[in-house]
Design goal:
Number of helices: 0
Radius of gyration: 17 Å
Strand content: over 45%
Structural class: mainly beta
Strand order of the largest sheet: 1-2-3-4
Number of strands: 12
Largest sheet: 4 strands, antiparallel
Number of domains: 1
Mean pLDDT: 86
Distance between the termini: 47 Å
Low-confidence stretches: none
Oligomer: single chain
Shape: globular
């Protein structure tokens, strides 16, 4: 059983999710060559959209999987008595990292709600997201 983290390694490279926006508001997943230590160097930075948060990683079987919450900047609050969710979705982005210097986007999934938990077992990634229901009383 594997759990997501902000830092992962495949034994040769280190994959790091910043979770802190830069001056322009963007976050990155950084790939660094770690072996040999005398040749440690930045290989690639994957720029994430500025509406991502809670970025987490998995690295296995030549794939880098990025999980995150993505806020919908166009979300309009419902003024009805009953509303569901908060305009965010859970994002699952999979890159082929056969060549870590040139990751290739392989798959992209979204599901409504906030990322709550995830686990990887074998070839399966289990992702749990949650939404809420609110009752507005005026």
């Amino acid at each position: 059983m594997d759990e997501s983290e902000v830092v992962k390694t495949d034994g040769k490279y280190i994959y790091y999710a910043s979770n802190q926006p830069d001056a322009d508001g963007y976050q990155y997943v950084t790939i660094t060559r770690a072996v040999p230590a005398s040749d440690m160097s930045l290989i690639k930075r994957i720029k994430l959209p500025n509406n991502y948060s809670n970025v987490q990683l998995y690295v296995a079987d030549g794939r880098l999987t990025i999980l995150a919450n993505r806020w919908n900047n166009n979300y309009v609050y419902s003024a009805t008595p009953l509303s569901m969710g908060n305009g965010s979705v859970t994002v699952v982005v999979v890159y082929d990292i056969a060549d870590p210097a040139a990751p290739r986007l392989s798959r992209f999934y979204t599901v409504n709600g906030d990322l709550s938990q995830s686990r990887r077992e074998g070839n399966y990634l289990y992702v749990l997201s949650q939404s809420y229901l609110s009752l507005n009383t005026w």
